[in-house]
Amino acid sequence: MKVWIPSALQSYTQSSRVEATGSTLDEVLHDLDRQYPGIRFRIIDEQQQVRRHMRIYISGLSANNISQEVRTDEEVVIIQALSGG
Amino acid sequence: MATVAVMVATRKGAWIYRAGSERSDWEVNGPHFLGHIISHLVLDPRDKTTLLAAARTGHLGPTIFRSTDWGYTWQEAAAPPAFAKAPDGETGRAVDHTFWLTPAHGNEPNVWYAGTSPQGLFRSEDGGISWSGLPEINDNAQYREWMGSEKDGTPDGPKLHSIIVDPRDPHHLYFGMSGGGVHESTDGGKTWHVLINGLDVVEGFGFDASNPTFHDPHCLRMCPGNPDRLYQQNHCGIYRIDRPSDTWIRIGRNMPKEVGDIGFTMTVHPRDERTAWVFPMDGTEVWPRTSPGGRPAVFATHDAGETWRRMDAGMPKEQAWWTLKRQAMCCDSLDQVGLYFGTTSGELWMSRDEGRNWECIVRHLPEIYAVEAIVI
Q: Which residues of B241-269 are buried (b: 16+ CB within 10 A; e: fewer)?
């Protein structure tokens, strides 16, 4: 499936759109980390929670937790919340 | 000819400044990680080659980067400091940022320690590539109680800091927690004991001074010239301890009353254990955390805290409200010792004569979090 990468994480992927596989969001994020080591921990903390200023959408709907299922024809969008100063 | 390198970590990236031993013509190397929050940038004094940077951004999780070519290339840690996953149904902790980096003993090449926010102690044995928590601190119920909640720490999160390794013994360690007191291990971190005797706590609230949770050490320094002597800038004053005594002595009582002895940072002479420098801040009423009266100054002692002398030649005489964070003052090891500090307003200052005269050598940086100097 297609995964959209925010600018702050494109130092890992060198691209705003990459391919990843998995039947759950967790598996997709692990596959991303396999391809781009380190990227997952910058999105998901050690308690398996999406970090405070990150948001993940699956086919346009906000993902509440990483155990959520995803289909191969869906798109995953990772964005940075608008915050900071 | 010796080269002096000064590593500057800021809220928006990191810079490295290098000069010859005259310390007058500084070459800039940076920015590195522009836009990232860099809490600490440290060059390994054992190989004088390996740089570690503690990084995060406002959006992304924390990590550590490593370079062996002065930042031309960086390698990210494969396993950055992270707490253990909590059992299902329990709330675990997540590292918000790595705050402090300390190279271990000279006999332990590639070993580093890291302190985090919220408070955690981590160790790497491969030069910063992978990190493991020390469970006797991170998962110990008593320590968790002493650490308190995130509401008990400093405004940007409670911190474990000032990790110190005794140069005579790699197993002899100290650290401080804001809040949570001072702690010592003599077995490489397997067991720890509290070292808070003599330290004051905030008055007027009935706080029990024997409870580490009420203690807030801001910065600990061990004297390289006498590792039995440590100095401490605390939320409640300036202290000294001479081991094996277990009692701190409040030497800040000897500071001028109109200045007080509150501050965040301090540094100690590389050879003379009687000499230390502090940078007081305004700790009155609402804790403005500015230079007292808008007149910044370093104060030096040359007699282990019996007397203090104001050293502000070259600094603004009025209406200068910046201050220094706890990692933002340090010294080099040349003779005469060079002193360096970075301000909350993004200026890097130095003295080539042990504090007698000061000069601003860099302006217009982001808010400076940490300054480290090393002679190569």
A: beeeeeebebbbeebeeebbbbbbbbbbb
Count of other CB atoms within 10 angstroms of residue B173: 24
Which residues of chain A approach chain B closer than 8 Å at the C-beta?
6, 8-9, 37-38, 41-49, 51, 53-54, 80-81, 83-85
Q: Which residues of B touch A46 (CB under 8 A)?
A: 82-85, 92, 94-95
Using CA coordinates, name the residue in chain A closest to B78: A38
Q: Give me the amino acid identity at A73.
A: D
Domains of chain A: 2-80 (3.10.20.30)
Q: Look up the ipTM and state it.
A: 0.82
What CA–CA distances, in Å, run from B154 to A25, A49, B37, B300?
A: 35, 24, 17, 26
- C-alpha B75/C-alpha B71 separation (Å) is 10
* 3-state secondary structure at position B76: strand
pLDDT digits (tens, 9 = 90+) for B134-164: 999 999 999 999 998 776 667 788 999 999 9
pLDDT digits (tens, 9 = 90+) for B328-361: 999 999 999 999 999 999 999 999 999 999 999 9
Question: In this structure, what token pair is assigned to residue B67?
Answer: 């370079």
User: pLDDT tens digits for B248-267?
Assistant: 999 999 999 999 999 999 99
pTM for the whole thing? Answer: 0.94
Question: Residue B44: how many CB atoms within 10 A of its CB?
Answer: 21
Distance CA B278, CA B296 (A): 11
The alpha carbon of residue A24 is apart from the nearest alpha carbon of chain B, in Å, by: 19
pLDDT score at A42: 94
